[in-house]
Amino acid sequence: MTGKRILMIVGDYGEDYETMVPFQALLAVGHTVHAVCPDKKPGDTIATSIHDFEGAQTYSEKRGHNFAVNASFDDVKPESYDALVIPGGRAPEYLRLNARVIEMTRHFFDAGKPVAAVCHGAQILAAAGVLKGRTCSAYPACRPEVELAGGIYADIAIDAAVTDRNLVTAPAWPAHPAWLAQFLDVLGTSISHSGLSLAA
């Protein structure tokens, strides 16, 4: 089984499920995932937040886990990776101010490599100027940013996802089954249930 090399850009108060679940799921099917954060080195942690939907007009937020990054942001060479994952939460609002985050994001679009973004991850895509003419889902509060960046906002169910060429997006963590399945498809990952063998 030959897996892909996947870069994940994370930050403090990124959404817990949107960081932990794709990181672990992609590892489980044989891919290599390097989680990086500006100003962090391998073994350093970020604080995650848990966003829940409890009947208020927006999500609630609670402190999540400490998530350890496993690669150095300063050493990242985007050209050595096959795909990019951008979790949501509050991290994207400050990560998009980092010029190197924007440069890395643009690389994956310029090269036509698979990109998966969920929830507020669209804030980084919008800041990178890569959404023009593309269909993109995001947390509904990010709709103006998607549209101002020239994207077509996908107004879909909270547990749905959408693929536009190399870009796979979803509104929030309830969409993980659809979002990860579509991303695995774009990656070219096939999973066989015959004898539970995995092929990446």
From TrEMBL:
Domain DJ-1/PfpI residue range list: 4-184
Family per similarity comment: Belongs to the peptidase C56 family.
InterPro entries per the UniProt record, alphabetical: C56_PfpI-like, Class_I_gatase-like, DJ-1/PfpI
UniProt superkingdom: Bacteria
Pfam families (UniProt xref): DJ-1_PfpI
Annotated signal sequence range: none
Organism: Rhodopseudomonas palustris
Name of the protein: DJ-1/PfpI family protein
CDD domains (UniProt xref): GATase1_PfpI_1 (cd03169)
